[in-house]
Hints:
By secondary structure, the chain is α+β, with helices and mostly antiparallel strands.
Amino acid sequence: xxxxxxxxxxxxxxxxxxxxxxxxxxxxxxxxxxxxxxxxxxxxxxxxxxxxxxxxxxxxxxxxxxxxxx
Length: 70
């Protein structure tokens, strides 16, 4: 969580975006954190249907969060 607060702006996000829900590829996810050393898939998201954590690219998550906010 501290990593996310520190690095959120690097990914075009805000610290308060952590724990926001969004849909991607027909699944619902919650943004739960980040892995700053992973350049291609830096964001960690939990899939609601199975509780598993997935690494996702920042641009996909940004776009999905923007859609979820409409």
